[in-house]
Amino acid sequence: MSLENYNFDGFVINLYVDEQGDWLAHFQELPNISAFGDTPEEALEELKTAWELVKEDYQHKGRIVPTPRNKQTISTI
Questions:
Q1: Closest Cα partner for 4 from 46, 37, 32, 41?
Q2: Is the Cβ–Cβ distance between 65 and 56 less than 8 Å?
Q3: How far apart (Å, rounded) are the C-alpha atoms in residues 63 and 48?
Q4: pLDDT-derived band of residue 74, with 50, 70 and 90 as boundaries?
Q5: 10 Å Cβ neighbour count for 43?
Q6: Coil, strand or helix: which one is 25?
């Protein structure tokens, strides 16, 4: 799996499967931004959508969009 199709602005993404077999993707540095899917790709697509909405909300409110401390990577647990 490659993150080339996903732009998470350099944030570290954790991706794992839960006890029910659903995939969860979330930002390591921003754990409140997360998404589920039936496959890893679906979870990442949902996370991509969530991240775009979060960024829009920050911008709409005139707040600075968070930036990562690390380069973009994926961690599987």
A1: 41
A2: no
A3: 20
A4: low
A5: 23
A6: strand
Which residue ranges form the domains of the chain, and what is each CATH number?
13-76 (3.30.160)
pLDDT above 70 (res 4)? no
Which amino acid is located at 50 in the chain?
A
Residue type, 47: L
pLDDT in tens, 17-37: 999 999 999 999 998 999 999
Q: Would you say 43 and 1 are in contact if contact means Cβ atoms under 8 Å apart?
A: no
Please count the CA atoms within 13 angstroms of the CA of 50 that sit on its side-chain side. 18
- Which band of pLDDT confidence, cut at 50, 70 and 90, is reported for residue 70? low
Q: pTM of the predicted model, to two decimals?
A: 0.80
